[in-house]
Records
---
Amino acid sequence: MTESRRRKIPWRAILPPLVTASIFLLIFRKVPFARFTGALQDADYVRFFTALIPFSVFYFILDSVVLWRVVRWFHGELALADLLPVRAVDYLLSILNHRVSQGAMVVYLARRLPASLLEIASSVLFLDFLQKTHLILWAAVGMALVSETLPATLVLVPLGLAAIWAIFLSYVHGGFAFLGRTLRAPDWRLFRTFRLASRSRYAQVLLLKAPLLLGAVFAHYHATRAFGFEIPMPRLLATLPIIFMVGSLPINVARLGTTPLAWIFFHGDVVDPPKLLAYSLAGHLTFMLANAALGLAFLPRAYRELFSESGAESESNAA
């Protein structure tokens, strides 16, 4: 009986809240709570929101354009206006579960395009992998420019990424020799977009995404001043991509634990930790709530288009 009960414990549901609570306990052992709340009270929120709210809208529009271009390249014509609702709802659902939001997007696109669920999923994974690549490449640029001392191990991140991409692309495009055997990817539709994409397509996606990170650096550079401190742009360029990646790890609730922990880890030596904690939480919640507002605005239309036609339930289950 004891073993069967242990097996039924929903660790995937329990672990993120436990990790989030543990991180905040760790943070507030070092950061006085009164100074944290004082930093929140003293902030200039007009300046803060003026920097971050326009960036949230800009991010949504350009991110939708990148998705639209990839869909047109690999699956056929689709109007940008038809992508905005599902992209907005993707932002809303990703607050709770990133994979569920991606699944909803796959179902939506598969119903509007002459492509299978796995072929659409291939393009969604293609964008997801390139998003991480885009962040690490900019982090490498920032590390080359920044003059402040950063952890030396950060240099290993772009090197590791380059090795992973070299192995994966060799695996997908013809295979590679390993221990006397040729390892080659099976002809799965889940690899379709990776196989079809030329080098120029990979580069075009990275270039299209570049303004997203540069816009984030610019927005955070000005928003931090609302909390009474300033982080140089080169340092932000080196650390923000890693902060975003650490925040996206599926081990905490709505990225509320790992995001402020990463801010403090990278900038706690040059910024007063209570102010840094207050800013990181306020910035993350602002971006998250702005995305949720966009998702709620488009939710009725997205719901109609996802579930109004026959067969929606079976397709959703398949995804």
---
Amino acid sequence: MLFRDRREAGQILAQMLAAYAGRPNVLVMAVPRGGVPVAFEIARTLGAPLELFSTTNCRVEVPTARCPGEENAEDPSTTLPIVLLVDDGLTSELILRLAVTSLRQQPIGRLLLVLPVTTPAAHTELLKLADEVVCAHSPEGARAVGQWYQDFSPTTAAEVRELVQRLARLPVVKPAQPAT
């Protein structure tokens, strides 16, 4: 699978994550800079907030509201944030290992690592760190993330700012109410 660019990779991953759409306790967290265009598409599609992961200030701030139709408000799977940690790909898990270590010190419910592409070996290692790994493509012999994109030009700071601001202007997606 060859992605046109990071945005297309995010659109594909968003389809894979459709079960999280409209849930009030989902947070999409991007690993800057390359993970931001991927995460933007996921956050936009799911109607979830987007934050940038920072190694200097890692705090998860998501309302811990109960999902509609959930009977047990004490169940952490319905109240604590579900964090979707997104990057543009992975051939080495060093940065994500750091991010997971930081996030695990926060009150979160589930942690999903979301990547367009990773090696099978890295995928196996990541499963030891997260509750779930969502990956669109896991080819043998991947050496560089960029080989799986037609356009893998660097993500600029200006692009990151523009995407974060653009998402902030979008209307909030409210979860569907259960049928009565």
---
Amino acid sequence: MQKLAAVVVPACLLLFLAIGFAQQDGEENVQTARGIVFHDQNGNQRFDEGEPTLADVKVSNGSDIVKTDEQGRYEISVTDDTIVFVIKPRNWQTPFTDNNLPEFYYIHKPKGSPDLRYGGVPPTGPLPKSIDFPLYPNPEPDTFKAVMFGDPQPRTQQEVDYIAHDVVEELIETEASFGVTLGDIVFDNLDLFETQAQAIALIGIPWYNVLGNHDINYDASHDVYSDETFERNFGPAYYSFDHGPVHFMVLDDVEWLVNDNGKGRYVGGLGAKQMEFIKNDLSMIPEDQLVVLMMHIPLLEVRDRQELYRLIEQRPFSMSISAHKHVHEHHYITSDDGWMGPKPHHHVVNVTVSGSWWKGAPDERGIPHTLMADGAPNGYSVVTFDGHEYAFDFRAAGRSKDYQMQIHAPEVVASTETSATTVFANVFNGSERWHVEMKVGKEGSWQSMELARESDPTYVDTLAREKALTGKPWQDLPSPRRSTHLWKLNFPEDLPTGTHLIEIKATDENGRTVKGYRTFRVNE
């Protein structure tokens, strides 16, 4: 189906948008879009006589949301720069492109996008008489999995190939129901949207995309034009959908600001129009439904997050996911940041596919090891949703799913120095709510480890070792960052000479346990 952009404008925003859009006639050309949401029984993506229509399905213009009537019909206002989209209901699916991208929207830009380096949407012409949305039955159980990619961020086609070999190939035949790229789909080169989408499509599941700060048009004169290439490739920059019992909201929290000299910069923000969509969307979601917010810039860096907090903080079930930082972190937002909810809000800064921007020495496949600055490997998350509950599983790219921690300890310890020697355990998916214990040897006892807000010594050693090399053809890793998932404990006293085994056991807040092992020797 053709893609088209829609936006409904509250009266209080008309002046702002009129300036932002810079219409030649100086006014908004507001029209009424009409259409049908229907069960596309013959799969031709056209509404044919006799096909069932679907009532109570939500349709939005990016601000307002309406429901289809008993005949599956809707009416909603549009301007000359609007994306009309259907909010996918549970147990239904939209059509997909050849790249497994959901086609749930129609772009209305009669004159097309402004002239931009990477190109936007071509002119779509007059508003169609009917903008119809086909849907297909798709049973969705209460329990399902989703794959979360942070920042694949390729600069070149070679780095797209890294993505294909490092994470796509191992996800073939995944049990996940869908995947999401949490922004920075590419690294400024928007021509790579297509080839990367082709690679990810090979996983074989529907794939949603979030706008990142490296996915925008840097030559745009205003924020309203900064998403044009993204829209041409993926549709609206913010939207929502249901899958199983969960409501997912894809948010655009990248605002593009241009000063009087034409110099632009991005900030974390949602803006008034998107906030109106969020408010309207949440007002139609049952209070006891889990709401998952997906964005690029972490919530704690979004300028108007307090307004968003007011909309979600009293809901008993909500959480949010971002990327952007090239680390993996669990945050629990409290009153220290103005959160007024009865319990902290869980926000996950997701591990990135590109790790440290594809830096570091190449492995045997020629792919940079790209260790992240918090000491965690590059990779992705697999999230299991079950009603109101959810659980994150960390997946290190190119490794066994059991590789969940890196233990740092010396190869050899003098028998007189054991109690002064520290063992570090970097538990990649760990947080302040995890309990981590260490045991040395079969006869040893379990001892609690201390959460250490320090740089991972394995990362520090790796960085120093690689920086000391000359004439290397790869880029050095970035400076280390304090890890939020690093634990430490000294060896016990009076260890006998010989070879010993360190065993680390890490338990999350749900009682799930991961383990790691490392050997070392004690000499006289």
